[in-house]
Amino acid sequence: MSASATSAESTSFAARINHPAARALIERHRLRWWEVLPWIAAIAGYFIFPGYLGFGTELLVAILFALSLDLALGYAGIITLGHAAFFGAGAYTVGMLADHGVWSEPITGLMLAALVAAIVGLLSGLVLLRTRGLTLLMLTICSMALLEQAANMAHDYTGGFDGLPNLPITPIFGVFNFNPLYNNTQYLYALAVLLACFVFVRTLVYSPFGQSLTGIRENLLRMHAVGAPVRRRLIICYTLSAAIAGIAGGLWAQVNAYVNLSSLDLDRAATVLIVLILGGYGRLYGAFVGAVVYLALEHFLARIYPTAWQLGLGILLVFIALFARNGILGLGEALWRRYGGRHKPSAPS
Amino acid sequence: MAALRRQAQAVGAIMSETRLETRGLTRHFGALVAVTGIDFKLAAGARHALIGPNGAGKTTFINLLTGVLQPSHGSVLLGGKDITATAQAERVKLGIARTFQINRLFRGLSVLENVYIPVAERMGVAPSMFNPAGKRTDVIEEAMYLLEVLRLGDVAQHRVSELAYGRQRLVELAIAIGLRPGVLLLDEPAAGVPSAESHIILDAIERLPEDIAVLIIEHDMDVVFRFAKRVTVMVSGAIFAEGTPKEIEANPEVRAVYLGQAGARAGDHA
Ligand SMILES: Nc1ncnc2c1ncn2[C@@H]1O[C@H](COP(=O)(O)OP(=O)(O)OP(=O)(O)O)[C@@H](O)[C@H]1O
Ligand SMILES: [Mg+2]
Q: How far apart are CA A300 and CA B105, in angstroms?
C-alpha cells in the first residue's frame, strides 16, 4: 500500500512493476511448494497401497476428466452437462480401433482419442456455443444423448449395448504390459498422462488466453466491449477441453480394456460435474479434491451403506450449495483467510 | 501512443473533421420508438455532452453507436466509413470504446486483472496460450499506470466486487481508457459516485489526449458546462436542440423541458 498516495507521474516503471498487486500477477504462475504434494501423494500411494492401485487408477482418470471440465466450466463459464460425450468419443476411438485390429498402441491411441474428441468438440461447439445458460445446458445433454444412441445403434462397430470387452492393448513402449490382476502399469501410466495434461491446462489457465477466459466467465457483455472475439475463444476452449476429456475416456478404455455405453451417458456427465462442484471449480485443484472425496465416498461408504451412501452424498452437496459455493477448496481458502493469521487481501485466480 | 496519436491526426486531417457520424439513426423496441431519425456528428477531439430526461434514448443511442444494438433504420459512420453492420468487438478494434451506465466489471477478478484484460486485448496479447500472463510486464505496467492515474493503486490487488460503488466506477473508466480509443463514449461516468470522489473521474476525463473524441452522457449540469464544448439535448428519442453550453443554457425551450426538471431532481436528491 505504498505507491498509491503519490501521483502517477512521480512513480516509475519499476515502482509500478514492484507494486504488490503487480508482483502477485507476475508471480501467479510460479510453482508453489504445496503444488508438488498431490504428486508426492500419488507416488507414495503407489508404494503404500499396492492393493488399491485399481481404485487409484480410476481416481486418476476421474481427476483428468474433471480437470477437462474445469477448463470449460470453471474457467470459461461454459455451462455443460454433456461432457461425457467427449469422454465417450475418446473411449470409443480407442476401443473400436483396438477391437477391429486397426490400432492398439496406447500412447498414440490416446492422441487419436484426443483428436476425435476435439473434432466432436469443435463441431458441436460451433453450433452450441451460440447459446448460453439453460439452453446451452439442454443442448449439451441432447448432443450427448444423440451420440449415445448412435453408439447404441452402430452395433457392428461399437458392440451396442454390450460394448467392446477384452480390448487388445499392446504394452507401453512394447515393454510394460497392462496386467488386469496387477494395476501397477495402469496406475503409473495414468499418472504420467494426468501429469502431462495437467501441465498443459495449468499453462493455459495462467496465460493471457486463460485470463481472457475468466473475463468471459465473469462478464460476457463486457468482454465484447473490450473487443475480444468471444465466440472464437469459447470454441477454442471447448475444443481443447473436449480433447482432454477424450484423453481421459481413451485412458479409461485402455486401463479397463473395455468400452461400453456408460462412457458417454448422463450418469457419467453428472458425476464429473458433482466431482468438480464438490472440489471447487475454476481453481485447478478442485478436480483433485473433488475426485478424491467423491470416489472415497462411493468406494468406502457404498461398501458400508450400499443403499444409503448417495443420501450422504446428497447431504454433502446441499451443504456445499448452501455454505461453500466454491467447493471444498473454496471453503478451505475462506477458512485460511479468516483463521490463517495473516490478513492478506484476496488474490483471486 | 505518440504513433497512435499521429496516425489518428493524419486520418482526421485527410478524411474530415468528423470522426463519428449517424444518419437517420432509428431504433424501435416493438411499438416503442426509443431513438428516431438522429443525424449526429462527433468531431475529432470533441468534448461533447449528450443530455436529456430519463428514458430519452441516450443509452440506446450509445448502444447503437457501439453495435450492442442494431438500428431499425439509418447508419453509423466512423471516419466516413459505414460501420452499421460491423460487430461490436470489431468496432472496438476500430477505436470505439465505451463505459456503461451500470457497472459491467469482471466482478470476481482483481482490480488489476480487470484492467489487464482490456490492455492485453488491445495489444493483441490475449490470444497467447503458452506464456504466462505475468510475463507480459508491459501490459501489467500499463494497467498499473492507469490505476494510479485513477487513484486505484492501493486497491489494485482487491477483488473488484469488494470495492465501494464509486471506486468500481473508476475501474469501469479504466477499462475503457485502457483500450486507447479514438472515440470514447461515457454513459453517466460519475453516476453513483460520492461527490468527494467524482472529481477524480472528471480529472481523468479532462486529461485524456486531446485528439480523442469524447461523448459524455451526464445529468449534472455543472459537469456538462465545465467539460463540454458542445451539447446535444435529446428528448423522446429525437434531437431537441444542439449548441454550445451557453446557447443551450439560454434556450428557453430546453430550460422548460429539461433543465427545470433536472433542477427539481437535484433538489429531490438533496
Ligand atoms: N432493450 C430494450 N428493450 C425494450 N425497451 C428498451 C430497451 N432499452 C431501452 N428501452 C426503452 O427505450 C427508452 C429509452 O431508454 P434509454 O435507456 O436509452 O434512456 P436513457 O436516455 O438512457 O435514460 P436514463 O437517463 O434513465 O439512462 C426507454 O423507454 C426504455 O424503457
Ligand atoms: Mg441511460
A: 44
C-alpha–C-alpha distance, residues A29 and A32, integer Å: 9
CB-nearest to B134 from A27, A225, A226 is A27
- ipTM score here? 0.89
Q: In the prediction, which pLDDT does B204 show?
A: 87
Split at pLDDT 50, 70, 90, the class of A272 is very high
List the beta bridge partners of residue A164: A259
Residue labelled with grid coordinates 456528428? B41
Q: Residue A288 belongs to what domain range?
A: 36-340
- Report residue B51: phi and psi, to 5°: -125, 170
User: Whole-angstrom Cα distance, residue A147 to residue A90?
Assistant: 12
User: CA B21 → CA A308, B43, B49, distances in Å?
Assistant: 68, 9, 15
Residue contacts between A and B (CB atoms, under 8 Å): 171
Taking residues A274-298, what's their average pLDDT? 93
For residue A3, pLDDT beyond 50: no
Contact A245, A117 (CB under 8 A): yes
Q: Which residues of chain B lie closer than 8 angstroms to A25, CB-CB? A: 110, 112-113, 116, 133-134, 140
Structural domains in chain A (count): 1
Mind listing the domains of chain B with CATH numbers? 18-95+181-264 (3.40.50.300), 105-180 (no CATH)
